[in-house]
Each structure stands twice: as structure tokens, then as C-alpha cells.
């Protein structure tokens, strides 16, 4: 039997530091700065920016498709060869290089931006699966919620610290400020490069590499193991239904991550000061949500906590859509002059709390359901579900917003979170944990 014991504190911190480092990419490139820069300045098809929004969605969709195809097979190879750190290091270097090259994307070079975004986001996305696959080996089941929440929580703090430099030095997203704000790519790459170093110094590789059978190759081994997992997945229906739920939930989350600040600029029409404040509030509330719900997970159960976060998301999306109407209604009914951009700040806090907690809960559940000897492979399937979600969600929102506009299109997310909640009814957390424990104890043929 392979015991699940708590790793040393330094190793857990080293693992969490990768979340600290890579959150700069999510925040600055995907969510806040580069997405806005790409749609409004580099493509710049005012007044509705529908072409820029569509190209943005297509680029992210393509990157998620590549990650979807590679994650499970790469995970299976990593488990077989005990090479998680090597694969993680390769994805880290590729992310850094492609992100730094975003400096060269200027107005008139939109296709270069699309190409570099595909490469950098592919490497970043597959790296998310690689780092998550270390989670089951970091502690016993009753600690995984706290450990996962720690990673996601300090990740948002990392994003906030990276953003402070942008606010203080690089300035606003505008055509007039392009020569300074174009440094967003190199700065993000540098932050990721330096902040992730503790991961490679302190996190240790677990498992024992196995030699290749005569006449076989790593790709063949990876494909064979994925095929074996798919054959047995029916018996692990809790993990299978979790992946279905993750597909719907992450579709909605990827839409919000990619379009929240674009929505603020295009629909809410916020001032630069309000945009800056949203920077800070989303990071702080997301960190609080991840850390707080991490402890709640270990008390209420990860599945129940996950369901609560899905309900919070549906409330948040309804408020995002209704923000302009709430502002108008308060003025008409009570004479209150509350601009939509300030109401949107409150809504952002609700969404931020849901953001950190929901993603952390799905990672914990996969960690509970994944046998140690197949953790990289099963987190590869988790990554596949997430990237398929990103691909489908962003493609859908890109097309829908081109038809009806961004404000109405965001309502698609309520449907996605509702479907994710329905899928959780087919999951039994205790049964899924028992199956993983049986495999760790050698009582499973899988």
C-alpha cells in the first residue's frame, strides 16, 4: 500500500508557489490587460469590437484544443516514467518564452498576436494539469482541500503583486500608452520565471520510473495507458461525472476570465480608476474564497462545497447582466445616483469569491478520486475537461456575442453553471474516495 502522508511544509509551499507564479499570466494576459489591449488597440474595430472579440476567442479556443489533445497522454507518460518535474519544466519555459514575445504584437500584427497567444496559453494550460498532478502526494485526503486552497489562494496574491507593477509603471490600456503597456508580455514572463523557481527546487518527484518494453515507445505507452483508463472509467463513475460537471463549470469560468475586463470596458464603460480597483478586489476576494472554502471543503466535503460555489456563480452572472439595469432602477425609484461601474465592483467581489473557491474544489475532488500511481494521467483528464470547456465556452461566447452583443451573451454562463450543478447529483464523494484508496492498497485491477 502507498501511504498518503503529509509532505514537508517547504515542499507544500514550493508546490503552491507555482500557483503564485502562474496567476500573473492568467490575470495580466488572459483576464485584464492583454485581452483588452488586443481587442481595443491591436485589432481596434470600434465601436463594438466584435472582430477583436472573435479573434480573441478563436485564439484561446485553439490553445485549449492543443492542451486537450496532449494532457492525458502526457500525464500517462509522466506516471510511467516518473517525470512530472521534467514535463512541468518544459511547459514553464515555453510559457515564459512565448509570453515575453508578446512585446512584438502591435497594431497591424493581430495574427502574430493570435499565434503567440495560442503557444503561450497552450503551454500555460498544460502546465496547470502537470502541477496539479502533484497534489495527491502532498497529504492525506483530509488535508487536500486546505492544500489546494492554499495554492489557489496565494496564487491570487501573486497575481495582485504582479499587477501592482503594471499599475505603477506600465499604466493604462490605450493606443496613446501603447509603447509602455506593450511591456506587459515581458513583465509577465519575468515574474513567472522568477516566482516559480521554488517549485523546481523544493517539490520532489514521487514514483519509480519503469523501463520501456522492447519495441515500444513512450507515445505508445501513453496511448495504451489512456486507453486502459478509458476502459475502466465506467467503473469510476464518480470521477467520470465530475469531469462532466467540470466541463460545464469551467466553460462558464473561462468565459468570465477571458471577458470580465473586456465586459467592464465595453458594456459598463468604467473609468481607469475603477478598473484598477477591480484589479485589487477580484484578487483579494478570490484569494479569500480559495483559502476560506479550502477549510470548508475539509469540513463539509469537497463535493458539497463545489455545489455551493456553483450557486454563487449563477447569482454572480445574473448580477453582471443586470448591473446597468440596477443602476438605472435605483435612480428612477429612489433618486440614488449609483453609477453602474461602482455596482459592478460589488458584483466583482461575488464573482471573485466564487472564482477561487470553485476551481480549488474541482482540483481537490480529482485529488481525492485519483490513485497515486495514476495521478498525472487523471489530472490530465481533468486538464482535458478544463481545456475542452475553455474551447467550447469561448467559441460559443465569441459567436453569440457577435450575434447579440456581449451583455446578452454573458447569460450563457448561467445555463452552464446550472448544468454543472445537475451533473453533481451523479457523484458520490465517499464512493469515489474508496475506489482510489482500494487502488492505492493494491485491491484494484486498474
Describe the structure.
The chain is mainly alpha-helical and 446 residues long. The protein is built from 18 helices and no strands. It starts with 8 loop residues before the first helix and ends in a 6-residue tail after the last helix. It has helices at 9-32, 34-43, 50-81, 84-100, 110-132, 144-170, 178-181, 184-195, 197-202, 218-232, 237-268, 272-300, 302-334, 340-369, 375-404, 406-409, 412-423, 429-440. The longest helix has 33 residues, at 302-334.
Concise structural overview:
The protein has 446 residues and is mainly α.
Provide the descriptors you would attach to this structure in a database record:
446 residues, mainly alpha, globular
Q: Total number of β-strand segments? A: 0
**Overall body shape:** globular
- H/E series, N to C? HHHHHHHHHHHHHHHHHH
- The chain-level mean pLDDT equals 87
First and last CA, distance: 15 Å
Estimated helix fraction: over 70%
In the predicted model, the low-confidence regions spanning at least 5 consecutive residues are none
Strand content: under 5%
Number of helices: 18
Evaluate the radius of gyration. 21 Å
Largest beta-sheet characterization:
none
The structural class is mainly alpha
Amino acid at each position: 500500500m502507498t501511504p498518503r502522508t503529509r509532505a514537508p511544509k517547504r515542499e507544500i509551499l514550493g508546490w503552491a508557489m507555482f500557483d503564485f507564479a502562474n496567476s500573473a499570466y492568467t490575470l495580466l494576459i488572459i483576464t485584464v490587460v492583454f485581452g483588452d489591449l488586443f481587442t481595443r488597440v491591436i485589432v481596434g474595430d470600434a465601436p463594438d469590437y466584435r472582430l477583436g472579440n472573435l479573434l480573441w476567442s478563436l485564439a484561446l479556443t485553439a490553445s485549449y484544443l492543443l492542451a486537450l489533445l496532449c494532457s492525458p497522454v502526457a500525464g500517462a507518460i509522466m506516471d510511467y516514467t516518473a517525470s512530472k518535474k521534467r514535463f512541468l519544466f518544459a511547459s514553464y519555459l515555453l510559457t515564459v518564452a512565448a509570453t515575453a514575445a508578446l512585446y512584438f504584437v502591435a497594431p497591424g500584427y493581430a495574427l502574430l498576436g493570435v499565434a503567440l497567444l495560442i503557444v503561450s496559453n497552450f503551454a500555460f494550460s498544460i502546465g496547470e494539469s502537470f502541477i496539479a498532478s502533484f497534489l495527491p502526494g502532498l497529504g492525506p485526503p483530509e488535508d487536500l482541500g486546505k492544500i489546494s486552497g492554499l495554492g489557489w489562494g496565494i496564487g491570487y496574491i501573486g497575481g495582485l503583486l504582479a499587477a501592482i507593477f503594471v499599475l505603477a509603471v506600465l499604466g493604462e490600456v490605450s493606443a496613446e500608452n501603447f509603447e509602455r503597456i506593450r511591456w506587459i508580455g515581458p513583465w509577465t514572463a519575468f515574474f513567472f520565471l522568477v516566482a516559480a523557481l521554488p517549485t523546481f527546487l523544493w517539490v520532489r518527484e514521487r514514483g519509480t520510473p519503469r523501463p520501456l518494453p522492447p519495441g515500444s515507445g513512450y507515445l505508445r505507452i501513453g496511448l495504451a495507458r489512456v486507453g486502459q483508463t478509458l476502459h475502466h472509467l465506467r467503473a469510476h463513475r464518480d470521477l467520470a461525472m465530475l469531469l462532466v460537471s467540470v466541463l460545464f463549470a469551467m466553460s462558464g469560468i473561462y468565459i468570465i476570465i477571458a471577458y470580465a475586463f473586456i465586459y467592464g470596458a465595453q458594456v459598463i464603460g468604467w473609468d481607469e480608476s475603477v478598473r484598477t480597483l477591480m484589479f485589487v478586489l477580484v484578487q483579494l476576494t478570490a484569494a479569500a474564497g480559495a483559502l476560506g472554502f479550502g477549510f470548508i471543503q475539509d469540513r463539509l466535503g469537497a463535493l458539497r462545497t463545489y455545489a455551493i460555489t456553483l450557486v454563487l456563480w449563477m447569482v454572480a452572472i445574473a448580477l453582471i447582466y443586470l448591473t446597468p439595469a440596477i443602476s438605472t432602477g435605483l435612480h428612477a425609484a429612489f433618486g440614488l445616483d449609483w453609477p453602474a461601474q461602482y455596482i459592478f465592483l460589488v458584483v466583482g467581489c461575488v464573482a471573485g469569491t466564487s472564482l477561487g473557491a470553485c476551481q480549488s474544489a474541482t482540483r481537490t475532488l480529482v485529488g481525492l478520486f485519483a490513485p497515486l500511481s495514476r495521478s498525472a494521467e487523471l489530472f490530465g483528464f481533468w486538464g482535458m475537461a478544463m481545456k475542452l470547456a475553455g474551447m467550447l465556452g469561448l467559441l460559443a461566447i465569441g459567436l453569440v456575442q457577435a450575434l447579440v452583443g456581449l451583455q446578452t451573451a454573458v447569460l450563457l454562463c448561467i445555463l452552464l453553471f446550472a448544468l454543472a450543478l445537475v451533473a453533481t447529483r451523479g457523484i458520490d464523494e465517499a464512493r469515489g474516495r474508496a475506489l482510489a484508496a482500494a487502488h492505492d492498497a493494491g485491491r484494484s485491477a486498474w
